[in-house]
Fold this sequence. Notes:
8 helices, five-stranded antiparallel beta sheet
Amino acid sequence: MNSDTKDIAMKGKKCMCSGKVLGMVILPFLTIFLAEQLSAQKAVARIDTTSIKIGEQVQLHLDVTLPSKATVKWPSFSDTAFSSVEIVKRSKVDTLETTRNTFVQIRQTLTITSFDTGYHTIPQISIQYTVPGDTVRMETLTDSLMLHVRTIDVDTTRAIRDIKSQMQAPITLAELWPIFGGAGLLGLIAGFIWYYLWRRKMNKPLFPVIRRPQLPPWQIALESLNELETKKLWQGGKVKEYYTEITDVVRTYIEGQHQVPAMEMISSDIIDSLEQKGIEKTILVKVERILVLADLVKFAKENPLPPENAECLNNARNFILETKPGEVNTPAENEEQTSTSNSL
């Protein structure tokens, strides 16, 4: 074997030795990394206790650690998801952060019970997930668990007693309210029927009619004249409307105060009727001037002067004041009497 061949053989042995050394260094780290990855994606199921009494409740904790960007298909548990073991309550599924940012912990707690004595197996629970960039659905399984359900201990040395009778719950206001409400409604109906029959027997309306006190005719007439004065009809060229309203007020007052049907009579007949009522002629002159001037305006298209228009309203007001009942004083008269007494 020449020198070149020996050199090549020596170099090959050195490379093989270097490869073995590198493999011995990397292999432990690779094993630890893969173990962490596998353990991190392991689902764990545990129960608070493995032995309960029949009907007693215990909590089943389900935890799994998966990559943070994984899409998880969490199992949907029905009430009878496990044979002979019932699920009473489910908590919401919580997602918690871990010390490693690339993983999250998903957790749910199930409250379970069983009404069959003996040993019951809680089977493995499958949790499926996918990671971004991979369409293959992966799966991680929990370990199966054993649950022992014991019967209730019975003390055979003690005498057997009868079952307790039902307890009488106190009556609440909510139960009595319909009774009181019905009795009150019947009372209202009976009271309404009695009131109706009583009002009918008394020959009165079912509901009393409330009437406003009627003002005396002289007061109504004075208020109407005051309102007419504020309208300023003749000042606005409405002379005919002005005299029509004055005569209507005077005629209405005569009918109400002196019982003379003035609305259906002509002017001369009104004067004659008032004269028969004993009204003085000096007062009747004022009424006659009002009625005659109004007839001339309405039928002869007379256009009185402004002083005549104002005088007509004053004559109507004075006629009402001089012919109203003597025992009643107007506010104007009261003010006049007060001012007179103060001056004295």
